DNA sequence: CTGTATCCCGTCTGATACTG
DNA sequence: CAGTATCAGACGGGATACAG
């Protein structure tokens, strides 16, 4: 939770589920994230072994981000939580209205 | 994740699994949390419908916190994530060492 | 006992501009 | 294209003291 509970890590994880992606591709897929923050997020996830960063020495430069086995293995557990959230978000919102 | 990904919510959830608890009881069980922050945490969880706060008009005052059905229903999904974390924490730590 | 009131600091996140 | 540099705001969390 400490590692993927931030604002963007989970969206990166979901975006990369379909296969490797490049920096800009990832950025537009997610939407609303600045390059600085996306870089921070990706580097942290790389350090945790959730994804790999591969640089191709080309012109123009190309960098691909790919989920590791560890990263892919997170999808199962997270989807369990996601399912719970989807099933209960309505009740939670209803509950919060009472306090407004 | 937005709601229970903070520093203390999950510990509250786990602590209350065994049944209702009072403020101070909860505080010493968790350990290291100041009254202000614990109050913030509990109020947020109450608003989300994860627990109820019941005040008893006694001397000395008594307040009990109890998990709702919604709160209890979170244990399953979270334990799935917890299991994943326990099984993979070693590999994650090993990975982080490479970058140090 | 169960909190509230203040003050404070570090971190997260973002806007904007710039670079190899 | 894929970032880095810089500045700044908002927020979570903590220390301490006080109150009903």
UniProtKB/TrEMBL annotation, chains A, B:
Keyword Iron assigned: no
Gene3D superfamilies: Winged helix-like DNA-binding domain superfamily/Winged helix DNA-binding domain
Pfam families documented for this protein: HxlR
Coiled coil (residue ranges): none
PANTHER family in alphabetical order: TRANSCRIPTIONAL REGULATOR, MARR FAMILY, TRANSCRIPTIONAL REGULATORY PROTEIN
Organism domain of life: Bacteria
Keywords attached to this entry: DNA-binding, Transcription, Transcription regulation
The name this protein goes by in its record: Helix-turn-helix transcriptional regulator
SUPFAM superfamilies linked: Winged helix' DNA-binding domain (SSF46785)
Annotated signal sequence range: none
Span of domain HTH hxlR-type: 1-93
Presence of the UniProt keyword Zinc in the record: no
